[in-house]
Amino acid sequence: MKKFGKYFKKTLAVLVCTATVLPLSACTSDPVVQQQINTTEITFAWWGNDGRNKYTIEAIKQFEKLHPDIKVNCSYAEWSGFETRNKVQMISAMEADVMQINFGWLDQYSPDGTGYYDINQLGDYIDLGNFSEDMLEYGYEGDALNAIPIAMNTETVYINKTIYDKYGLDVPTTWDDLFNAAKVMSKDGIYPISAASKSMWLYLIAYTEQYTGDKFLSDDGSLNFDEEDFQVMIDFYKKLVDEKVVPQLEHYERIKLDNEEYAGSVAWVSDAESYFGQAIENGREIVIADYTTIEGHSVGEGWYAKPATMYAVSTHTSQPEEAGMLLDFLLNSEEMAQLQGLEKGIPISESAKKVIADEGMLEGIQYDASQKMESVPMSQLHAVLEDSGLIDDFFAAANEVIFDKISSEEQAEIFTEKVRADYF
Fold it and tell me: Which CA distances in Å does 106 have to 22, 33, 120, 216, 331?
């Protein structure tokens, strides 16, 4: 298998990369040099904040130095804008040659494996040996390898131990621990744990799977939860809210973590720095707790893991070889690994991970969260579990129970029928 990336260094003039936020923009080279080289143009799209945009643009500069016969046109935006534009581009077959994608998009855009390029066909250009079969499995639709994970992700329990210590409480590991903490903290207006909508939804699924012994989905991807399961889920959310364990979702405010009105949070591995970096700078001790469980159950039961983000190649690309070379650079090269660090999570690529380790970057709260994830067996997160419509429908239904407009038994029956009709 041929390896590209840093091994294809060529010494030509420095290429200057510029990009704008929404439209495609060329990472353009010196025009004099461009006249002397027969270049192939490809496009690359990603989402992210200013920090991600900056280092990715720098990486593209370096790729173009290594491959002066390839010019990369860049397209990037914040998540919401990118998601909307991506939908239009996928429908109209105008997507970028190489693109960052969300795990759930595989089922959405390529249920039969033909919506993205089969990366197995690019084995001469991408060192797939850097990835275990288990990790590559996340990118398969049918027999086609449609995408490659960059890093893995799961919901994680982060606890501000400084607050818990103040109340003489141990770091919680069970649901009962959280209810006991609420009895002590609530008098001061502090919640033992908190979560935004998707995180809360998955947190409730974890409890329900532990309590009932039922999985949300059957092995074939069909809905396995029934009315009784959803009633357990609704009742438990109401109990969490009523007993001040969590703020009701509509009252959740991310800033209250910094203000220490929340003593912890359920959030993705990839959220670790953004959620708790400030608290750590302020001298607070933030720890990664065990995945919350019912006492006596195995840790990790009911919890799900997924790729944090992935790279794919357009099935409509006219330049698959060059796209494969860029994809290999993004995933496996020393240059990209050094620039990216842990921003997208702990790299799955063995070569990228080695660079990170050699640079002394494998440390900090995100690394600790990633290590916790790797230590516990988890189920693979199915795309339907992240469906924003399904999540919104659940909390709307649960709120009617919280406000005593309907019984949980009646609501569970109505909600189950809706889920079956609208999502399965």
Answer: 23, 39, 16, 20, 19
Domain total in the chain = 2
Kindly state the tokens that stand for 32. Answer: 């004099």
389: CATH: 3.40.190.10
- Residue whose tokens read 């499995």: 137
Closest CA to 328 of 73, 122, 141, 138: 122
Residue pair 137/288 in contact (Cβ under 8 Å)? The answer is: no
| pLDDT tens for the 424 residues of the chain, in order | 333 333 333 333 333 333 334 444 455 445 544 445 679 999 999 999 899 999 999 999 999 999 999 999 999 999 889 999 999 999 999 999 999 999 989 999 999 999 999 999 999 999 999 999 999 999 999 999 999 999 999 999 999 999 999 999 999 999 999 999 999 999 999 999 999 999 999 999 999 999 999 999 999 999 999 999 999 999 999 999 999 999 999 999 999 999 999 999 999 998 898 899 999 999 999 999 999 999 999 999 999 999 999 999 999 999 999 999 999 999 999 999 999 998 898 999 999 999 999 999 999 999 999 999 999 999 999 989 999 999 999 999 999 999 999 999 999 999 999 999 999 9
* Closest by CA position to 182, among listed 200, 201, 173, 169: 169
- Tokens in use for 103? 């795990």
Residues 128 and 171 in one domain: no
Two tokens, residue 13: 């003039």
Same domain, 91 and 9: yes
Q: Tell whether the torsion through CA atoms of 354, 355, 360 and 362 is positive or negative.
A: negative
Structure tokens at 388: 């924003």
**Is the four-CA dihedral 136, 326, 91, 114 of positive or negative sign?**
negative
